[in-house]
Amino acid sequence: MEITNDIENTLRLLSKVNLDFLTFVEKNPACLKRDNFRELEEMRNKLHFLQSWPTFLGGEAKKMFREAGVKLFDLIKSIPERLFQNDTRAMAAFYELPVSLVDLQMEGITRGRLDNLLARGDFILSPQGLKCLEYNVAGILGGHLLPLWESLYLKNPLVLRFLKEYNITIKNKNLLEQYLAHCMRTAELPVSRFGDAEINIALVLKGDAQANLGPIAGYLDKLYRELLQREYPPRSGNIFLCDFPALDVRDDSVYYKGRRIHALTEWYFGMVPPRIMKAFKAGNISLMNGPVTGLMSAKSNLALLSEHKDSGIFNHEEKQIIEKYVPWTRKITVGETTYRDERIRLADFILSHKDEFVIKSSLGLAGDSVHIGKSMSPGQWEERVKNAVLNKNWVVQEAVTSSSALYQHGETGCAVYDMVWGFFIFGSHYAGTFLRVILKKDAPRIVNTHQGAQVSVVFEVGEEDE
């Protein structure tokens, strides 16, 4: 098991506990065998394959993750007002969308309501620092089963033995509890408006998705009622899993089986019936995230931050955040732009420097329509770039190389993996992270669970930093 200087530096930056774990592995070769982590097989399905080894995150790295995740998302949420003055025609022209669709997506939106959004920022920790790839702004973010994954690792005898021998305390906060707490906070205005004695939340999703969450439905409701008793005594309430047809709307208020719903989280990627939107615009229900999902998830938002970094739109601190965490990103056009202080003809420059860039559909999901120049032939790259210019709503981003770490591999052994971090941001609150890893030898490749990446749970350790 060779630990190079680069790997050692990466793991030390995250937390020295990662190096302690590798020392433990050397002393305990049983850690190299996948079969000794069979507890993790309980969560194996077509989408998630849990990596045998966890990852450890210390206070300093967590501070960096929180700053990057929260402050960049705050800047993205400011884009409609600061860059477009909420002019939906100007927004439609930039995002290459019909004005009517942008009007719909911005219905009932104020900056205060944007501050309630749920998001997951995807980042790479590179030799040049932490860099943002994109933000997924939706009620369904992937990784929502993180508390269950954590519990599976903490059932494993080898992991437990390591934690005991090195006297390590895990300090993770329950992601689902933070999710529910955020929903509850956003419900305060509708609750106060009606003077209700309870706070009810609807988690709205399709039947097949409900079936997937069915095993934890009772756990969610129990967790929510405990949270209510602790944070809002003596209020009561429930969280309901249902689909939109099960909701009634009367007098611009939303009900489920006769009980008023104060906050609604949709797992429909922003598609919400007009009757629910009417209640939202009336201020009678809090909605996360709703139609604005599409605009806030657009990868071209990072292009706006990158291109306007040195304008008068952002103050000094904001410019530093963009410089620090956003790789050079542009919307693909046939015109000119700047790259490292030089004027370039964008499309021509991308074509002639394919190994340095990645192109993406601005509205793509789950790694779809992402093309890594280094992994393509010149002919393939030329075809993709020309199509991107024609289709207009594409972005180019400077390729970011992941720092690497060692993880268990195969039936027995370990190997070098690349990493992509997912930071959960609820409003302006950093709620934690999880990690997707893929074999270094398979790079460059999209690090996505839909395309074969494994998940490693991240355990927070070290001194408290809040």
Low-confidence stretches: none
Helix/sheet category: alpha+beta
What does the radius of gyration come to? 23 Å
Mean pLDDT: 91
Number of domains: 3
Distance between the termini: 36 Å
Strand elements, count: 20
| Amount of helix | 25-40%
Largest sheet, in brief, is: 7 strands, mixed
What is the count of helical runs? Answer: 18
Shape: globular
For this structure, the quaternary state is single chain
Strand content: 15-25%
Task: Describe the protein.
This protein has 466 residues and is an alpha+beta fold. It folds into three domains: 170 residues, no CATH class; 125 residues, Rossmann fold; 71 residues, Dna Ligase, domain 1 (2-Layer Sandwich), CATH 3.30.1490. The protein is 38% helix and 23% strand. The protein contains 18 helices and 20 strands. The strands form five sheets. Strands 1, 2, 3, 17, 18, 19 and 20 form a seven-stranded mixed sheet that branches. It has a four-stranded parallel sheet with strand order 5-4-9-10. The protein has a four-stranded antiparallel sheet with strand order 11-16-14-15. A hairpin with a 2-residue loop joins strand 2 and strand 3. Helix 1 packs across helix 2 and helix 3 crosses helix 16. The longest helix is centred in the middle third of the chain and has 25 residues. The radius of gyration is 23 Å and the shape is globular.
